[in-house]
Design brief:
Structural class: alpha+beta
Protein name: Pleckstrin homology domain-containing family J member 1
CATH architecture: Roll
Organism: Syrrhaptes paradoxus
InterPro entries: Boi1/Boi2-like, PH-like_dom_sf, PH_domain
CATH class: Mainly Beta
CATH superfamily: Pleckstrin-homology domain (PH domain)/Phosphotyrosine-binding domain (PTB)
Number of helices: 3
Pfam families: PH (PF00169)
Number of strands: 7
Largest sheet: 7 strands, antiparallel
Order of helices and strands: HEEEEEEEHH
Distance between the termini: 34 Å
Amino acid sequence: MRYNERELLSLARQPAEKAAEILMRVPKKGSVLKKRLVKLVVNFLFYFRTDEAEPIGALLLEHCRITKEEENVFSISFIEEPERKYCFECDSEEQCQEWIEALKRASYEFMRRSLIFYRNEIQKMTGKVSPLK
């Protein structure tokens, strides 16, 4: 997928649905946990060095798995490359669960399934095929 760097930077500056400084490990050999500002905007997860305004990376949250690894730790891996795993360690179990839920709701796939579900529910209640017309 292609991205325009300027548009991504603009998106990274938008208000976040969720943001926090948490420990993160990228899938590089020898990578260690480092404190990063992690910011969820629409279906992108941006990560920043804590003292910088521009992101050092972004993850598009499509075709990915968000997995609870261990206490206070979750990971993001992509279906095409399951061995490539980004790990995040939160301050608490509660914070970890909040991140997992927010990330799972952020994908286009989740929004599409929700739209279909609610359309069907409205149709059941109103009897109309397209109640919005």
